[in-house]
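A quick word before the example. In earlier lectures we treated sequence and structure as two separate objects. From today on, think of them as two lines of the same record. Here is DMT family transporter written that way.
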Amino acid sequence: MKTATSTLSAAATGSGTAAEQRGTLLMTLGGVLLGSIGIFVTEAGQDPVTTVLFRCLFGGLALLLWGAASGRLGELRLSGRTLLAAVLAGVLMVSNWALFFAAIPLTSIGVSTVVFHLQPFWVLLLGAWLLREHLSSTRSLACGVALLGLALATGLFDQPAQQVLTAGYIKGLLLCLIGSLCYAGVPLIAKLAPGVSAFALAWWQCAVGVLLSAWWPLWHGLPPAGATWGWLIGLGSLHTCLAYVLLYAGMSRLPTSRIAVLQFIYPATAIVIDWLAYGHALGPLQFGGLMLLGGALWTVRRCA
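And the structure line, produced from the sequence above:
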């Protein structure tokens, strides 16, 4: 009996390890994929509203196809409070996307991505303020370290002031900060509808984005024929549908501590791609700030 029990225990451990390895691979692929979003936005060369429209359009269509193939279309039927929560979350998420896309040409892919990753800290602070959630001393300290890391990561202290403190760069940073605040509101609103799946929220975000921006081409025209459409289709199908499927499939197989570490792959990939594709390398203080921000983020999520 003891031998049989030991065998079953070992088999369960092996299965758990295999599941975690698969989850790690899926999250890594999803993070790398999301890290390439900046190059798709840059190469498409469209204004932020046009980029949001076609990301939502192609992303929503791809999610519908995936939902039909996986038998999950029924999750999209929402009403009352859950529908309201999904729509409000969609408005915030679409605003976040538009602000992110607008910030990239004003700063850089790497800096914009790093600043947008302040979102977990805004969630903590807003939760403590609006929902009266307890904010531990460890998390409070992590928020302070994150703000210091952010100040360094923006590059304001890495180069001569006249090269960085331009009106466009400061505007880009402000757009990033406002966008990260919008992003922080999404999980808070999602708490109002705990029964809504991540798939349903993602699809409704796309639906809301299409409804809010469908009028734009009537005044500004459609993107030109050619490669632009390939970048926009990729932005929707790859970064909105496939990345969602990979990340959430990976998260479901992993403990919270592992998820917290793997979520650094997204900004790290964005920084590497920005450097390889456009020559935007981080300076020493920027890199140090990124490490501080990453350490603070890991601490916050580890304590979740």
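Notice the following. Residues 24 and 115 are 25 Å apart (CA to CA). We will return to this example when we discuss secondary structure assignment.
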